[in-house]
């Protein structure tokens, strides 16, 4: 059977038939050698590499996404510098857990992978929307683990709070205004887990034993 270059319809079928991002990424990884050997049309190449990067990111396959981003310079020459630059910045932001920056890149749909149009653009936009939702959840979860004082604007950005009532929303979530630093808020303490309670009991028991020992030595 003669192998030909990948078509937009075939690429769409691969993505549509995948059960989840991990399956889509695996299928695209299998197709990549063919894309390199038989370079497709410019718009198909754009869509393919955009979809490959985004499905890998959605599947949380960051190491593989980094490898793909590094391979982009040797990808078919139809790829533009914009795809290379923005794709690499997106992967770098995800790798360093800079979720606000990643969200900014994902939200900038018109500027991200600009040559992927018509059918290709709809596929890319769908993947971008999925990644944006995932990033919002990840960013909120990461911000929830930050237990250090922060400026109001930064805290709102980390918690994805928008609007003029950001401070009131932070206070509703248990954040308090730092009396010693203007414009700075302090998050609520993290809720205690079973492991925290167990560690606290162990510490109290250790202190009780030490106190008993010191009392015995005194008398």
Query: How many domains in all?
Result: 2
Question: How far from one another are the termini?
Answer: 94 Å
Gyration radius, in Å: 25 Å
Poorly predicted spans: 213-219
Order of helices and strands: HHHHHHHEHHEEH
Give helix % range.
55-70%
How confident is the prediction overall: mean pLDDT? Answer: 76
Beta strand count: 3
Give the class from helix and strand content and strand pairing.
mainly alpha
> Treating each run of at least 4 consecutive H or I residues as one helix, how many helices?
10
How much of the residues is beta strand, in percent? under 5%
Explain what you see:
It is a single chain. By secondary structure, the protein is mainly alpha-helical. It has ten helices and three strands, in the order αααααααβααββα. It has two domains: 8-144, no CATH class; 150-186, no CATH class. Helices cover 66% and strands 3% of the residues. The protein has a three-stranded antiparallel sheet. Helix 2 (21-37) runs antiparallel to helix 3 (42-58) and helix 3 (42-58) packs antiparallel against helix 4 (62-71). The longest helix is centred in the middle third of the chain and has 27 residues, at 118-144. The protein is elongated.
